[in-house]
Structure formats: structure tokens, C-alpha cells
């Protein structure tokens, strides 16, 4: 016995050079593994970029909801204090006015309106209407400031007050937008609201209009902010020096006597009384968090209201029915495929190879025709004046008045999809049946089993893996099918995927589409899991 | 002509023919009568029609013409599952989705047997093949030899009187095959069942059978017990198919009763032989001599013929020596001698005289 053999009795197995065998084995296999990885790398990269990343992004969209907090940052903060019941206070309305003023310039208020309209109808038009009038907020202060001192009309005054000195010096003769605006730290301390508002104004002017803020008079809402800062009582002038001290001191002395205009009243009276509706505010608050379960709730016919989660009213429930129908019809299609496909596969697997190959080509023939063409052909066959009804009437099986409704309903979808998905059942069945040797059935018969018993007890159990594979294929394809239900399904024969497509391309509610897609994906995975537990994935075979 | 109505015949083929394509006969005029309790082997090269005969008996093929009778009753139109014949297949054909016990229960279940009776029979059958501990296993967990034992037990568990075996040991290695051959014959005799056994392995046929039917070209070439088949082949096909055999071509020059003289084609030398199917002087014939019946430097009678031979090769095989010789112009003549202490070991190139007893040299058809 060599020394290496002796070591087997205690401790890990060692290779000839004394390193542990496991280690030296993994070293020996490393090059092989790296080569395997390199071989799949292009495909892996391709799939990650074009498939996995988009799907992840899509799934993320189903919970993503930062549009409210991004578009109405001030309002969302103020709404924290709101306790429902009535419309919120003046301060919240002021925040809303500032947010909306910026959003209107950026034109994001309509997007937000459409988003919130999914939850509460009417928000979209309310936001559009508000966007048109919100620039009037603060005009009353603008006039009074300008009356007080003409310097407030000058863009230069504002730049002097608000901009960082470095930015000003680099900006003197700039054409167009110039370098990105920098707010001065002094202004942020002296006039915080104004500084924030002006900085947003400057950025919008630069990015949206490509103009230089040094040559533009601020929006009225900036004067509103200035009024708020000055009437707040803090000694803003103390932060400045030179001419600006006098200007601010003068203004600070005058604001006490300014004519005021409460923003809340302006919104309720001048823009739309709907702003008094606590439901609008409830919706904004409910969706103010950057992540939401709202899309998922909608996807299962629930809704997120200010009072919590509740079932949608009867007439708004669609998705539960649609999911159930998709599931039920996929099952029916799957069972039809088994019933039609099993005998064919059985025949194919028992014929001589030449004949079965020929028949197999016939089975595959539909694949050579475009899916759209096949589905359209079903339209011609199934319609009221179509070939099938005409034949039935001609043969006297049905009367002319009693033509069967075979299309634009569930029947049409089931017929057309069974036809289209049938090869996906036949192929795995056939390839599994081909591997079942004929001597099993012979053995069963020699043991005394009748033809039926031999089939049912011996042949059928061995073909179950094929049925399993066919069922998974057909069911998963069916549950996500889109074109055929869209063409022959009418209104009550459509699937959940048609609704997803509608939200992707027509209503542009991608979040809801993503939530529906996610649910579909989870349901499929769940079924796959259940199937694995009951039948066993190892029992699925494609031959 | 066989007496197909004989009282003791259990299985009978009566002028049976079989064609698959309507042009060629795979089985040509088969007449065979098997008494109860006999172990009969159908031996032949592939394509000789032996498996077709077995399948006709089992009911998986129908005879194109003729009658097959089981226990006096015609079974041509009885479906296989009503024939009550046990069958063992080359590929075992154990149902992969059932355990061993379930496999054995299958023939009993389809016969609507009660559970307690069933369990008892399964246990007895498993013990019979020494597989009592394997009832709960799946066929895939068993070795080939174990699977074939289970297949055997399954074919016997419902106590058929006739069991068909289609090359049951063909997929096993040599040692296993030999021990199973022994077990199968013992079981068959103990149970008193009739066995029709198909194989292309002549050793298997000779060691196991009561009688062997040698098939070729759709016909039974010879039906005889193993010793008779080996020692007294009726034609040159059988002589060559069974065991090792030397053949020499020649012409009959003298013929008297059970002796004839054959002049060999190659050198014109003459040898003594026993006429089997030569009828006239001048007939062309193939004479057949078993290698172990060849004697070196024989001391036969004074008028006995001997042949000159030259040693081409001397092969040491342990229990025997195998000597390849050039005889009558052919260099594939084999002689076998036992490895005895006094046995001379030849050198390549040695010249010797060889001869044999006339009854060991059979003049057969050409």
C-alpha cells in the first residue's frame, strides 16, 4: 500500500502532492468552468440586457409611485399634518400653489393628473384647470412689491438677492441659458422660501426655455414666497449689505400693510370648488409615498382610499372576472388539447416511421402559416355567415334563424386557441409515447389484462410525463395569449393579456399593466410549483 | 408427418404458415407437437422464424394459415389475455411505474383475486426466485439479473401451465446467464410447467432443453433432444449451427449399409463416413466431423482410411488444446484434444496422420 492509500483512514482524502483532494479537484475543474462561462457569456449578456432587466424594470413599475412626491413635494410634506374631514389649511394650499406653479411650467401636472385619475375620476381635469390659473397666485403681492419699489421689477435685483456671487460673475455676458444656476447660501438663510422658489424658477427658465434667469422677471409665485418670508418677522436685511439692505428693510416695513389674498380662498373660489373635496386630498395623500400597493389593489378589484383598502364598487370590478375567465378558459383549452392530441400522438407513435413522419409534418403544418392568418381564417369559418354555419344550415342540422354564435365569444376563443396550441400538446406527447416500448403492453396482455386494462394500467401511466409537459406548455402559452382572443374573442372572450396590452398601449397606465403582469407571472409560477408538488417536474419529459 | 391428434400433445402447431407482406413466408409449414411438462427450445439464427412462432403462440401475431392448438383447443382467434400463457421477455418488460410487488400483483388483480390470496402468492413467487426482500423496490433499482428473476416470478405467479420465454437471458452477462439457466430449468421441472424457450445461443439450448427445434429459413431443420442434435445432426445446417464442426466436401464412391467411402474434392484422398442423407454412389456430400472426435496417428482397423495433415497452429486453452491443421487442401480443420499429462503438444509444421471412427463422420447433404 502506498502512503496516499494509508491516509484514507483518517482526515480528508489527499491528492498525490498532499493537497486535499477536493481542493485539487476544484482547481482542475476551474479552467473547465471558466470556459463554460465564457461560452454562455454572450447569451447571458444578451438576455440580461434585453430580457431580465426590462422585466425587472416592469415589475418595479407595478409598485413605483414617486410621481406624486416628485411633482408635489411641498404639498406632500404639508399633508402630513392634515387629518382629513375638511379641505386642508391655508399653508397646504400655498404649498400646492408653489408645487403646481413649477409643475405647470414643466408640464408635469397633467401627467400627475392622469395618474391620480386612475384612482379618483375628475382629478385629471381638475389639475389641468388649476394649471391654467395657478400663475395668478401671488400677483397681488407682485403688484404691491413693484409699487413699493421699482427695483423689484428688475431681474438684476433678484439675481443680486438670490444668486451665488460666483455664478453672477461667470454669467455677466452669457448668451442663452448659461451655466446652471447656483443659489446663494446667504439667501437660503435670509429668505428660505423665496430662495427655494427662485431657484426652481431659475432652473426651469434655464432648462425649459433655455433663457438666462438674469434677464427674466420671476413668476408671481416667487413674490408670494417673498411676502411669506418677509411677513414671517425674521430680520432678513441683516444678512445682506449695500443697496440690498435698504431694499429689504423697506419691503419688510411695508408688508405688514399689504393687501392679502389667502391662497385657499383663491383655489376654492377662482379655480375650482372641487379643491374643497376631501377625497381629492385623500387621494393625493394616499399616493404620496414613493411606493404603492395601489396598482396591485386595482389589479384585484380593490382600491386604496383615504379610509384604507376597500373593494371597488360592483360596476368597476373587471380584473377578478378576467383572471378567473383566463384561468378557466386556459384549462378548457388544455383539456381539449389533451382529448384531441392524445389519440393522434398514440397513432403517430405506433405507426412505422415513414408514415408517422408524414403525419407529423401535417401536425406541424400550421406552424408554417402565420398566426394572424390562421386566426383570421377562423374568423371566416366561424362567423355567423361563415363556412361552418352555412354547412350546418345546408345540411339541415340547424335552421337559418338558429345560426350558432361561434365567434366574438368564448366559444370562438376556445376553438381557435385549441387549434393553434394543439401541436404543443402533440409534440411532447408523441416524443414520450415513442419511447414507450411495445413490449410493456404485450407483457400486460400476456399477464391477462384486456386491451383497456393494459392501456390504462400500463401504457397510460407511462405517457403521463408527456401529458404533463404538454399541459404545462399549452396552459402557460394559453394563459398569456393575446392575438387570438383579441381577434375572435369579442368582449367576453378576451383574456387578461388583452387588458394588459390595453393598459400598455392605450390607457398608458403602465403601473397597472405591470401589476397585472406580475400577478399573472406569480400565478403561473404558483401553478408550476403546485404541479411540481403533485406530479413532480422530474416526471415532465419532452422525450 | 406428425400425429397432430396424439393424446399427449399439449401445444400443437398444425401446418402453420406466416407471412407479413403477402410475398414471403416467414414460417413455412410448421408442424410441432409439445407434450405437457416438456422444456422445448426454439433455436435458430435471427430471422429464422422462431420468434414469430413464439409470438403466434402467445397471440401477438396471427397465423396466416394453419391451426395452433393449446390443450386440444384451437386458439387462433383467442386474444392473448385470454390464453393464460405466461411470458418472459428479453427486456424483462417490468412495468417501470410499479414496484416489484405491484408488478407481481398485476396478473392476479386482473384475475380479480382477493388481497390476502394475492399477497400470499406474491410472497411465494418472490421466494421461489430468491427475491423475497425486494417487493418494495422499483424495477429501475434492480440489476439486470434481478429484474429477470422478477419477470420470471411475474410470469409464473398466476400459475400458467405454459410459459413462453423470448431470449430471456440475452441481455445478461455470461456468468449470470449460466446460473439463471440452471435456475429456470430447475423451476420448470419442479413446477411441472411446459416451457417454450426461444434463443439463438446454442449452449443455452443444449444445456436447458428436453428437446430442441432448430429453425432455419422458416422451417424446423431438426427436432431432437440435445445429445442427438449434437451427435447426429440430420443435415449440414444443423451440424454447422450446433457446436464446432469440421466439414469436408467430397463425392461418395462406395456405399453399403451404414458405411460409405467419400473421396475428398481437394486431394482425392478417401475417408470413411456414415451415410446420413446420401443415397447413391456419385452423390456430392459434405462430411461433418466434430473436432473432439478427431484422433492423431489413429490405430483403427487395417482397412481404415487416414488423412495426412500438417499442424498450422497449436493453441493452449487450459482444459483443451486446439490444433489447426491443413487437411485435404483446407487450412481451417480443427482438432481438439484434452489436456492430459501424456498428450503430445504439437509444434507448428509437424506432419501427422489423422483419422476417426466411421460413425463420428457423417456424410450429409451438399
From TrEMBL, chain B:
Source organism, top-level taxon: Bacteria
Cellular compartments per GO CC: ATP-binding cassette (ABC) transporter complex
Xref: PROSITE patterns: ABC_TRANSPORTER_1, ABC_TRANSPORTER_2
Function recorded in the entry: Part of the ABC transporter complex PotABCD involved in spermidine/putrescine import. Responsible for energy coupling to the transport system.
Assembly description: The complex is composed of two ATP-binding proteins (PotA), two transmembrane proteins (PotB and PotC) and a solute-binding protein (PotD).
UniProt domain ABC transporter: residue ranges: 11-242
EC number of the protein: 7.6.2.11
The name this protein goes by in its record: Spermidine/putrescine import ATP-binding protein PotA
NCBIfam families from the UniProt entry: potA
Catalytic activity: ATP + H2O + polyamine-[polyamine-binding protein]Side 1 = ADP + phosphate + polyamineSide 2 + [polyamine-binding protein]Side 1
GO molecular function, one term: ATP binding
Pfam families attached to this UniProt entry: ABC_tran, TOBE_2
EC class name: translocase
Family: Belongs to the ABC transporter superfamily. Spermidine/putrescine importer (TC 3.A.1.11.1) family.
Keywords recorded for this protein, A-Z: ATP-binding, Cell membrane, Membrane, Nucleotide-binding, Translocase, Transport
Amino acid at each position: 500500500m502506498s502512503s496516499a492509500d494509508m491516509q484514507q483512514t483518517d482526515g480528508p482524502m489527499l491528492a498525490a502532492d498532499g493537497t486535499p483532494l477536493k481542493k485539487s479537484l476544484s482547481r482542475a475543474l476551474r479552467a473547465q468552468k471558466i470556459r463554460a462561462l465564457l461560452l454562455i457569456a454572450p447569451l447571458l449578456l444578451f438576455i440580461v440586457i434585453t430580457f431580465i432587466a426590462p422585466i425587472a424594470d416592469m415589475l418595479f413599475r407595478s409598485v413605483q409611485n414617486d410621481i406624486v412626491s416628485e411633482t408635489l413635494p411641498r404639498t406632500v410634506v404639508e399633508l402630513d399634518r392634515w387629518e382629513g374631514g375638511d379641505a386642508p389649511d391655508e399653508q397646504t394650499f400655498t404649498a400646492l400653489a408653489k408645487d403646481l406653479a413649477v409643475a405647470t411650467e414643466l408640464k408635469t401636472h397633467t401627467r400627475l393628473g392622469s395618474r391620480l385619475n386612475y384612482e379618483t375620476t375628475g382629478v385629471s381635469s381638475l389639475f389641468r384647470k388649476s394649471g391654467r390659473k395657478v400663475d395668478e397666485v401671488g400677483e397681488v403681492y407682485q403688484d404691491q412689491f413693484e409699487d413699493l419699489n421699482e427695483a423689484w421689477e428688475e431681474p438684476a435685483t433678484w439675481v443680486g438677492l438670490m444668486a451665488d456671487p460666483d455664478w453672477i460673475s461667470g454669467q455677466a455676458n452669457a448668451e442663452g441659458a448659461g451655466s446652471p444656476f447656483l443659489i446663494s447660501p446667504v439667501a437660503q438663510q435670509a429668505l428660505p422660501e423665496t430662495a427655494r422658489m427662485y431657484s426652481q424658477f431659475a432652473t426651469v427658465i434655464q432648462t425649459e426655455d433655455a433663457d438666462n434667469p438674469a434677464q427674466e422677471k420671476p413668476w408671481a409665485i416667487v413674490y408670494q414666497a417673498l411676502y411669506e418670508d418677509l411677513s414671517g418677522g425674521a430680520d432678513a436685511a441683516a444678512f445682506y449689505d449695500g443697496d440690498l439692505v435698504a431694499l429689504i428693510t423697506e419691503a419688510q416695513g411695508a408688508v405688514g400693510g399689504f393687501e392679502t389674498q389667502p391662497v385657499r380662498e383663491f383655489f376654492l373660489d377662482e379655480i375650482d370648488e372641487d379643491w374643497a373635496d376631501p377625497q381629492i386630498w385623500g387621494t393625493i395623500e394616499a399616493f404620496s409615498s414613493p411606493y404603492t400597493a395601489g396598482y396591485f389593489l386595482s389589479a384585484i378589484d380593490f382600491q386604496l382610499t383615504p379610509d384604507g383598502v376597500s373593494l371597488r364598487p360592483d360596476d368597476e370590478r373587471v380584473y377578478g372576472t378576467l383572471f378567473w375567465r383566463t384561468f378557466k378558459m386556459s384549462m378548457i383549452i388544455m383539456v381539449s388539447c389533451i382529448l384531441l392530441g392524445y389519440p393522434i400522438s398514440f397513432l403517430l407513435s405506433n405507426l412505422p416511421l415513414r408514415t408517422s413522419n408524414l403525419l407529423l409534418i401535417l401536425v406541424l403544418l400550421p406552424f408554417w402559416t402565420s398566426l394572424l392568418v390562421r386566426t383570421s381564417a377562423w374568423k371566416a369559418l366561424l362567423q355567423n355567415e361563415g363556412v361552418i354555419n352555412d354547412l350546418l344550415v345546408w345540411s339541415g342540422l340547424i335552421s337559418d334563424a338558429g345560426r350558432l354564435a361561434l365567434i366574438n365569444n368564448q366559444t370562438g376563443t376556445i376553438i381557435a386557441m385549441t387549434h393553434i396550441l394543439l401541436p404543443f400538446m402533440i409534440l411532447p406527447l408523441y416524443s414520450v409515447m415513442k419511447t414507450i416500448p411495445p413490449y410493456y403492453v404485450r407483457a400486460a396482455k400476456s399477464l391477462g389484462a384486456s386491451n383497456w386494462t393494459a392501456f390504462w394500467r400500463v401504457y397510460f401511466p407511462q405517457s403521463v410525463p408527456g401529458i404533463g409537459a404538454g399541459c404545462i406548455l399549452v396552459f402557460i402559452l394559453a394563459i398569456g395569449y393575446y392575438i387570438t382572443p383579441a381577434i375572435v374573442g369579442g368582449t367576453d372572450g378576451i383574456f387578461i393579456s388583452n387588458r394588459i396590452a390595453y393598459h400598455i398601449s392605450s390607457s398608458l397606465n403602465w403601473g397597472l399593466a405591470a401589476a397585472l403582469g406580475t400577478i399573472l407571472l406569480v400565478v403561473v409560477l404558483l401553478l408550476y410549483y403546485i404541479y411540481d408538488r403533485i406530479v413532480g417536474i422530474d416526471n415532465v419529459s419532452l422525450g | 408427418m406428425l400425429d397432430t391428434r396424439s393424446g399427449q400433445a399439449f401445444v400443437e402447431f398444425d401446418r402453420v404458415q406466416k407471412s407479413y407482406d403477402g410475398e414471403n413466408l416467414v414460417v413455412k409449414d410448421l408442424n410441432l407437437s409439445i407434450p405437457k411438462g416438456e422444456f422445448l427450445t426454439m433455436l435458430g439464427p435471427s430471422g429464422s422464424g422462431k420468434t414469430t412462432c413464439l409470438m403466434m403462440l402467445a397471440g401477438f401475431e396471427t397465423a396466416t394459415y394453419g391451426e395452433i392448438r393449446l390443450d386440444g383447443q384451437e386458439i387462433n382467434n383467442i386474444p392473448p389475455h385470454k390464453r393464460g400463457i405466461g411470458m418472459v421477455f428479453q427486456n424483462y418488460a417490468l412495468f417501470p411505474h410499479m414496484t416489484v410487488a405491484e408488478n407481481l400483483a398485476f396478473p392476479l388483480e386482473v384475475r380479480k383475486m382477493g388481497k390476502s390470496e394475492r399477497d400470499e402468492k406474491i410472497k411465494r413467487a418472490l421466494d421461489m426466485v430468491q427475491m423475497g426482500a425486494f417487493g418494495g423496490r422499483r424495477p429501475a433499482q434492480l440489476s439486470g439479473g434481478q429484474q429477470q428473476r422478477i419477470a420470471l416470478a411475474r410470469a409464473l405467479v398466476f400459475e400458467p401451465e405454459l410459459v413462453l420465454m423470448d431470449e430471456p437471458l440475452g441481455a445478461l452477462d455470461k456468468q449470470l446467464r449460466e446460473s439463471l439457466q440452471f435456475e429456470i430449468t430447475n423451476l420448470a421441472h419442479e413446477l411441472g410447467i411446459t416451457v417454450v424457450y426461444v434463443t439463438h445461443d446454442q449452449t443455452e439450448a443444449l444445456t436447458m432443453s428436453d428437446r430442441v427445434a432448430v429453425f432455419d429459413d422458416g422451417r424446423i431443420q431438426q427436432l431432437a433432444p440435445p445429445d442427438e442434435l449434437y451427435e447426429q445432426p440430420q443435415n449440414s445446417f444443423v451440424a454447422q449451427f450446433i457446436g464446432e464442426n469440421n466439414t469436408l466436401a467430397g463425392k461418395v464412391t462406395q456405399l453399403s449399409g451404414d458405411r460409405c467411402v467419400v473421396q475428398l474434392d481437394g486431394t482425392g484422398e478417401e475417408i470413411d463416413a456414415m451415410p446420413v442423407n446420401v443415397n447413391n454412389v456419385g452423390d456430392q456430400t459434405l462430411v461433418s466431423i466434430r473436432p473432439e472426435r478427431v484422433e492423431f496417428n489413429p490405430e483403427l482397423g487395417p482397412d481404415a482410411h487416414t488423412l495426412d495433415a500438417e499442424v498450422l497452429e497449436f493453441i493452449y486453452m487450459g482444459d483443451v488444446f486446439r490444433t489447426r491443421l491443413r487437411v485435404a487442401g483446407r487450412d481451417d480443420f480443427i482438432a481438439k484434444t484434452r489436456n492430459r499429462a501424456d498428450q503430445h503438444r504439437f509444434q507448428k509444421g509437424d506432419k501427422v496422420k489423422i483419422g476417426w471412427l466411421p460413425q463420428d463422420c457423417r456424410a450429409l447433404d451438399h
